[in-house]
Amino acid sequence: MTTQASVLENLAEVRAMIRRHKRNDFLFSIVGLLALMIGLLTLLTLFVDLVADGYPRFNLDFLTNYPSRRAASAGLLSAWVGSLLVMLVTFFSAVPMGVAAGVYLEEYAPKNWFSDLIEINVTNLAGVPSIVYGLLALGLFVYGLGFGESILTAGLTLGLLILPIVIVTTRESIRGIPVSIREAAYAVGATKWQVVFHHVLHYSSGGILTGIIIGMARALGETAPIITIGALTFIAFLPPSPVTEAAPFINFDWLQSGFTVLPIQMFNWLSRPDHAFHINAAATGALIIVVTLLMNGTAIWLRYRIRKNIKW
């Protein structure tokens, strides 16, 4: 009887502990949901406020006109073209190198203290404030290599900014691939390169692509490093076209051109006392948020589609 009573007592304690843990889980989920809703409502409120202020400028002329000293006729043409060209340089300077570095560190690098040191530093660099990259680019690209205050400098600066993000997301995506896929490929005689290229990269492409798009979205909204390297706040011309009508049909003069980007143009209009320019700045801010949300939404959609089409 004593043994049975002890068992029943222990069972009651276990049930009480389970109920207590379930209650704590429920309370934590409520707190987390409230925190999420507060963040989303704050963002939504700010976005609605920007849209309400900038609504009068939501038209095609705002995207096709050059900046002007008259707020009613000022536009974003040079800013969004500059952002597009800077993002182009950022993509080609950071993405191939970041993906290759992530694959090497995860699949080829020996597991020793040196690779651990590299991993720690890459992870830390992902959290470094963007202004630090601007100061680094100012000394290295502007003065050291003589690239000047150009699109090339801006693209390389933002490339350095998102490079650790691309490396970290690539490694995390590769780590999520089951070991059984590698073992099955080796079992049928595949080489190391074939396993990595045809299987590991194929199955991890969704996560890698998501990290790339999220990194590009962050670079699009960065202001501090672009200001540090001397981006123009007022520019009423476009860089030379990357494509020409004569052979070899490619022009690289635009890399050395002066530029401005959307956040810089927004900053310029906010710094002016005329309220009409503040309306332009609000419209620009809403546009940046919409583009950023579209890029993040595209990343989520692509990851879902890729994972849905892959058969494990």
Automatic annotation (TrEMBL):
ABC transmembrane type-1 domain: residues covered: 80-299
Gene3D superfamilies: MetI-like (1.10.3720.10)
Subcellular location: Cell inner membrane; Cell membrane
InterPro entries listed in its UniProt record: MetI-like, MetI-like_sf, Phosphate_PstA
Pfam family, one: BPD_transp_1
Stretch forming the signal peptide: none
PROSITE patterns: ABC_TM1 (PS50928)
Keyword annotations: Cell membrane, Membrane, Transmembrane, Transmembrane helix, Transport
Transmembrane segments: 26-52, 72-105, 125-145, 151-170, 277-302
PANTHER family in the cross-refs: PHOSPHATE TRANSPORT SYSTEM PERMEASE PROTEIN PSTA (PTHR43470:SF5), PHOSPHATE TRANSPORT SYSTEM PERMEASE PROTEIN PSTA-RELATED (PTHR43470)
Record protein name field: Phosphate transport system permease protein PstA
Gene of this entry: pstA
